[in-house]
Amino acid sequence: MESSSSSRGVPESTIEAVERTLANLKLVETHLLEFLSLANPDVLDEMPPLQRAQSLFMFAKATTTIFALRLRTTGIHPDEHLLKTELDRVTERLSLYQDKLEQVINISKEPSRRSTTLNYQAATRFIEHSLPELTPEQRKSMRDISRGEGSKIKYMERSTHKKRKYDTSEKQSVKAAAQEFLEKAARELFGGNTDGFKGPLIKVDSSSEDEPVE
Q: Are residues 140 and 171 located together in one domain of the fold?
């Protein structure tokens, strides 16, 4: 083998490198044919958005790499080709897209976190002190809620958690969460009958206050 390679003037190391390259090219061809099957539009449509973005990015990167390899195997350096500027632009954009894709992948792996949390017990105590006209029964109900003993607090927690589950695209501010809690608490305490009040609280007609007492 050495005599034949020496007679041709080709070093043994070069022949071994060529053989390794040919073997690697066969592996690339095998994997590339399998990978190209994913380029079917019907297959891409069935993929989740993140997986589809990864596949399209890999297609673009593989195309650029194979084109550069083709130039080198034909004796042309990519930096000396007429499309060098275009290749540099594509490479720069692919690097940018890769960074963005990695950020999205990292975010998708993070555990879901609540955008806003509200201390219902503290909010209930705030409502109690803000409404001095509450009856003793209503004050007791508010204290039960603030201690987490009432059924109302459980209902409001379930309702808020359910709303947060289907509203993950927007981050609810603390002010909005507090306003939502106040409205729910008002409906629990006052809403129900035709006058808009329920329980010991009774709506007083303001006109009756002007009438003289007989």
A: yes
Q: How many domains in the chain?
A: 2
Distance (Å, rounded) from C-alpha 10 to C-alpha 49? 51
Q: What type of residue sits at position 103?
A: Q
Going residue by residue through the chain (214 aa), what tens digit of pLDDT does each one get? Answer: 444 544 467 888 889 988 998 898 888 888 888 878 777 888 888 888 888 888 888 888 888 888 888 888 888 888 888 888 888 888 888 888 888 888 888 888 877 665 566 676 777 777 766 766 777 777 777 677 666 555 544 555 555 555 555 454 444 555 566 566 566 655 655 554 444 444 444 444 545 444 544 4
99 shares its domain with 11: yes
d(CA 88, CA 102): 21
pTM listed for this prediction: 0.43
Q: Is 97 exposed, middle or buried (0-12, 13-18, 19+ CB in 10 A)?
A: middle
| Structural domain that includes position 60 | 2-109
